[in-house]
Design brief:
With about 240 residues, the chain is α+β, with helices and mostly antiparallel strands. The protein has helices spanning about 10-25, 25-30, 115-125, 150, 200-235; strands spanning about 40-55, 60-75, 80-85, 100-105, 110-115, 130-135, 135-145, 160-165, 185-190, 190-195, 195-200. A 4-stranded mixed β-sheet has the order 5-2-1-9. Strands 6-7-8 form a 3-stranded antiparallel β-sheet. The protein is globular and about 70 Å long. The longest helix has about 35 residues, at about 200-235. Strand 1 and strand 2 form a beta hairpin.
């Protein structure tokens, strides 16, 4: 699986994964990544109402604003009978149980959208083993799992991230300089309507509840900060 950069928090999980693969029967090993080349990256989906940052390589280290990533659009060469369906409001803190994962069928050559956790659970299957096609590379994209909070017991699930194989310095073999960073390929799926942020109709059914949930949490956070400031002002008199 595309596990991302090796750190002290995921090295143990990598060792466990290597052992699991070593213990697999030959038939299962042969199935690993067998369909990765059939699953193609289209774009990432993001909320511009919640700004994030992306690194920009321009001679100096700097960053610029970008939408917060909330999903991915893919297309498959083959039918997928059991694409995961998960409530978009479930996350690493709520956890996701087996009975909270539904399924739907996606036909070949039909674009489909996934939340990050739907994508993670799809990628965990042997036939993908964490990889998908991107930039004309059968394994050019992968799911990376951030494990620090999960390992410490502060979260019930790892945090999935979607990555391309990184560009490499000119003196290193195997790296491609023509790969556009994945953070430059985010389509905003929300916009302001009469002063309020709304998910555009095409994506509203799937991502609308998430935007409402996040906006509510942001507003509650502002109220808590305002209350704290009032209390601080009173106690400082």
């Amino acid at each position: 699986m595309g596990a991302g950069k090796k750190t002290k928090y995921n090295s143990r999980f990598l060792e466990i994964g290597h052992q699991i693969i070593a213990d697999m029967p030959k038939s299962r090993k042969e199935n690993l990544c067998s369909l990765s080349h059939t699953l193609h990256f289209i774009t990432l989906l993001g909320f511009q109402s919640f700004k994030s940052k992306r690194n920009v390589a321009d001679g100096v280290r700097k960053s610029k604003p970008c939408p917060t990533k909330v999903g991915i659009t893919l297309i498959s060469d083959v039918d997928i009978d059991d694409v995961p369906v998960i409530d978009v409001r479930l996350d690493k803190y709520t956890g996701i149980s087996k009975d909270q994962i539904g399924k739907r069928k996606v036909k070949a050559n039909e674009k489909f959208d996934l939340t990050y956790y739907e994508f993670m659970f799809l990628m965990l299957r042997d036939e993908y083993a964490g990889f998908f096609e991107a930039n004309d590379d059968p394994r050019g994209g992968y799911v990376s799992l951030y494990l620090k909070a999960f390992e410490k017991g502060d979260a019930k699930l790892p945090t999935p991230s979607i990555q391309f194989k990184r560009n490499k310095p000119k003196n290193k073999s195997g790296y491609r300089e023509d790969v556009v960073p994945i953070t430059e390929q985010i389509i905003p799926i929300d916009k302001k309507v009469q002063g309020e942020w709304k998910v555009i109709p095409k994506y509203a059914d799937k991502y609308g509840p998430l935007l409402e949930h996040l906006l509510k949490k942001r507003e509650e956070g502002k109220k808590r900060i305002a209350q704290s400031m009032r209390e601080l002002h009173l106690t400082s008199k």
